[in-house]
Amino acid sequence: MALPKVYVTRRIQDTGLDLLKGRVDFEVWEEPRPVDRSALFEKGAEAEGLLLTLTDRVDEELLDACPRLKVVSNYAVGYDNIDVDAATRRGILITNTPDVLTDATADIAFTLLLATARRVFESSNFLRAGEWKTWHPDLLLGRDVSGATLGIVGMGKIGEAVARRAKGFSMDILYMNRSPRPSAERELNARQVSLDELLAKSDFVSLHCPLNDETRGLIGEEQLRKMKKTAILINTSRGPVVDQKALYRACSEGWIWGAGLDVFEKEPIPTDDPLLTLPNVTAIPHLGSATIKAREGMARKAAENLLAALEGKRPPDLVNPGAFPQ
Ligand code: DGY
Questions:
Q1: Residue 288 C-alpha to ligand 1 middle, in angstroms?
Q2: Whether residue 326 has pLDDT greater than 80
Q3: Best label site of 1, 28, 236, 321, fewest CB within 10 Å?
Q4: What pTM was estimated for this model as a whole?
Q5: Per residue in 19-39, pLDDT tens?
Q6: Quick one: 157 and 177 in the same domain?
Q7: Most ligand 1 atoms within 8 A of CB, residue of 73, 158, 289, 305 to mutate
Q8: Range of the structural domain that residue 25 is part of
Q9: Pocket of ligand 1 contains residue 241 by CB under 6 Å
Q10: Is the distance from the beta carbon of residue 246 to the nearest atom of ligand 1 less than 6 Å?
Q11: 77 and 156 share a domain?
Q12: How many domains does the chain have?
């Protein structure tokens, strides 16, 4: 019997590709840039499975062009690149890669928090530019992390992992989440509050919510103005959760002290974006899950989810149970 056809839109780690060998008939887009939309349509027309990444948009138009499609396996925990409702209506399973990237993403959030608070990139540029003339009591002073208050927006697994790191810095933890997180309250002494209270009281605000209709633009001018002038915003979730123009004004006009960003409204962020001119903005290119272990885990999970779906089993990380035959 012919093996099901699968299209993989990036060369992911062998931990994933090796699992596919002999079980599906797969082809990989080998370029180091996102797959051309025309190629995705052409390959998708034949495919029963797509294994793709957050740079690939899965919308009604694509789904209509893929009549044989049974599963879209996303190599990411976030799946805002996929129209899940449209897929569910067509009985197409959507899967993601949770858990394996929780620690890596929490680590990068904390890296940005520390780096922005202690002006690490700004100081390094200062030194390399030959501006370091002498030690001085006022040279490049930062903000204290130890003992400060951290506000976590979206207390899922990654938010909780950030809170655990914060505990090691004796931070007080506030959080905003749709539902209470009793384990975080018990073990980390975290306190659930409204977004307004979190913004008003936190020294650091770290975003860990998914991007959806409720969270798009969640942090705009009104919210940034509610933050302390000494506070720092960290975003490792998705760029559009923050109004980037408002954030530029907040950081350049001193409404807040600075920002640490792994994600942007448009990625890659254009290098002439005014945000990148600000010394109090730490910016890195969407690296939350970029460790060898996390990416190997994501590749493995993406392959396992895909194979389970094509074999008629319920994939371990099914996002839309409504599409799975009962
Ligand atoms: C995710 O998994 O959603 C990350 O943003 C990509 O690594």
A1: 7
A2: no
A3: 1
A4: 0.97
A5: 999 999 999 999 999 999 999
A6: yes
A7: 289
A8: 5-100+292-323
A9: no
A10: no
A11: no
A12: 2
Same domain flag for 230 and 84: no
pLDDT of 99-145, one tens digit each? Answer: 999 999 999 999 999 999 999 999 999 999 999 999 999 999 999 99
Residue 186's contacts (CB-CB under 8 Å, 6 or more residues apart) are none
State residue 1's pLDDT score: 82
Distance CA 240, CA 263 (A): 9
Which of 320, 42, 310, 291 has its CA nearest to residue 9?
42
CATH assignment at residue 29: 3.40.50.720
